Amino acid sequence: MTGVLEFTRVPHPSPVSEQDRARVLAAPGFGVHFTDHMVTIDYTEGRGWHDATVGPYAPLRMDPATMVLHYGQAIFEGLKAYRQQDGSIASFRVSSNAERLNTSARRMAMPELPEELFHRSITELLAVDGDWVPAAGGEDALYIRPFMISTEVGLGVRPANSYKYLLIASPAGAYFPQGVKPVSVWLSTEYVRAAPGGTGAAKFAGNYAASLVAQAQAAEKGCDQVVWLDAIERTYVEEMGGMNLFFVFGSGSDARLVTPELSGSLLPGITRNSLLTLAADAGYTVEERRISTAEWREKAASGEITEVFACGTAAVITPVGSVKSAEGEFTINGGEPGEVTMALRDTLTGIQRGTFADTHGWMTTL
Ligand code: PLP
Ligand code: COI
């Protein structure tokens, strides 16, 4: 790409009325309502990124032989824009999401999007749809979904020569209908999410398709979520559904936090990375290492593991209250949210909402 790409703005001819938007914002749910506009930027081999547009949110027209429909070059990101106390809008660690989109792109033989365009796509969308960001003071935020698909038409199996980057946004409340109530998890030994050398470290659409049957199995077992184990030994904990996991050992100022190390087959969560920093700031020892299901079971029974929680952009921090596997069932912290879990949750959400000092420079005003 040469020079700065200008965005063409095409206003929606009939945007959602103020009353209807207020109705949506009063009870947004997750991922069911969308703002009036979307961003699209096209990529063509040899020409680079071109035709950046902020236009009406609308269906895409696609040839039935468009490559993404057959061979699945599709990646995405997820981040949130938060209303601040003074009415402004800020987002959290945008550069990390831009970087991870490009890591995913490289794994899927797709073109990288310059970080500056990623940022601009968000500021351009917020410039026209800023009124869709929920009010300050609560848990709600605007969930932003950047994604990229291949658009070349043809059935040959090879990287496509054209792509489309899109950005849509959706006002979001609690991801889990029960809010911060602890979830129950099923340890999946039959299905694995990702294997060494595979696509697990990419935010790749196919990973989510492959997860659905295991999530359905977890539900059949009476659990809210599936916990993924390593593909080889089916012993080491990787992550939970679409979230990373943390284990709290001990309590009070002696608490230690352990999170599965980045094995190459789990997603390097931006919330995970932020919590490693915030936990260290709070004086806790943090460790990234392998943790087995046997260690989890034994140390939960002995009281050494005191709390377990999952973390991600959509649901922030969710306590894990009970664990079920072929070997039986056990609870964590009597099925209640723990102190360390909730303190970290307050710190993280406080930074995101501008009520706690952003000492790491993670927030960007949009
Ligand atoms: N793991 C998976 C599989 C995910 O889809 C996500 C969500 O994006 C996460 C972990 C958490 O990542 P982040 O904290 O960047 O949202
Ligand atoms: C997360 O943000 O934690 C997610 O897993 C996003 C999900 C909707 C794919």
TrEMBL record:
Reactions listed under catalytic activity: L-isoleucine + 2-oxoglutarate = (S)-3-methyl-2-oxopentanoate + L-glutamate; L-valine + 2-oxoglutarate = 3-methyl-2-oxobutanoate + L-glutamate; L-leucine + 2-oxoglutarate = 4-methyl-2-oxopentanoate + L-glutamate
Cofactor dependence: pyridoxal 5'-phosphate
SUPFAM superfamilies: D-aminoacid aminotransferase-like PLP-dependent enzymes
GO molecular function: branched-chain-amino-acid transaminase activity
Pfam families per the UniProt record, alphabetical: Aminotran_4
Keywords: Amino-acid biosynthesis, Aminotransferase, Branched-chain amino acid biosynthesis, Pyridoxal phosphate, Transferase
NCBIfam families: ilvE_II, PRK13357.1
Family note: Belongs to the class-IV pyridoxal-phosphate-dependent aminotransferase family.
Protein name: Branched-chain-amino-acid aminotransferase
Organism: Rhodococcus gannanensis
